[in-house]
Every structure is written in C-alpha cells, then in structure tokens.
C-alpha cells in the first residue's frame, strides 16, 4: 500500500505526460500529407491530375472550367500535385475535420 502511495503522489505532482488535446494541438510535421486543395486561378484544365489519379477522385471539365475532388475517395498519394504543370493543386499538412454530409470539393474558374 505504501509503495503505491509514492507512485500516486509522484504522478499527482508531476506535469501531464500528454497534451491537453483540444486546447493544445500538435503542429503537423513537414512531411505530413494532409489534404489536397485547388488553386483554381492557376489551373489550365489540362486534365493531367485526373488521368494519373489512382483513386479516380478528380474530375476536370474543361468546357465548364471546373475542377472537382471527392475527398472520401482520395488516398492522399500526392500524384496529382507532382504532375500539375502550373502548381494549381497543392497539398497542405492539416487533416480535414469530420463532416456530416459527403460533398465533393468543387472549384470553378471565373470566365473573363
């Protein structure tokens, strides 16, 4: 019983061993793959990203100048980011939060 009392007191007086999660979030590492985003202003709608995507989660419609990504099919391989000639697709390091509805991410370029 006395042996356990020492352990209890030591744990009670020491700082926590983990982060206080919702208040203290860990910054992702530099090599973390988070989610794909489109910089639609740079897109030339060549379709390279759609052709190389192994999960077939990207749809490019050249006539309507739209780019669509189904984030629930995306395996975050980064292949589309590598082949984009204009750097219109980027990968950020932050994960997408939970959602209630399954909606694809769609971007449309303004026609001037």
Got a strand count? Answer: 5
- Uncertain runs are none
Shape: elongated
Portion in beta strands: 15-25%
- What is the mean pLDDT? 88
Specify the biggest β-sheet.
3 strands, antiparallel
Which fold name fills CATH's third level, the topology of the domain at 44-96 and 105-109? Alpha-Beta Plaits
Number of helices, where a helix is a run of at least 4 consecutive DSSP H or I residues: 3
Radius of gyration: 22 Å
SSE pattern: HEHEEHEE
Quick recap of the structure?
This protein is α+β, with helices and mostly antiparallel strands and 112 residues long. It has 3 helices and 5 strands.
Task: Describe the 3D structure.
The protein is of the alpha+beta class and about 110 residues long. The chain has helices spanning about 1-15, 50, 80-85, and strands at about 35-40, 60, 65-70, 90, 105-110. The longest helix is centred in the N-terminal third of the chain and has 12 residues, at about 1-15.
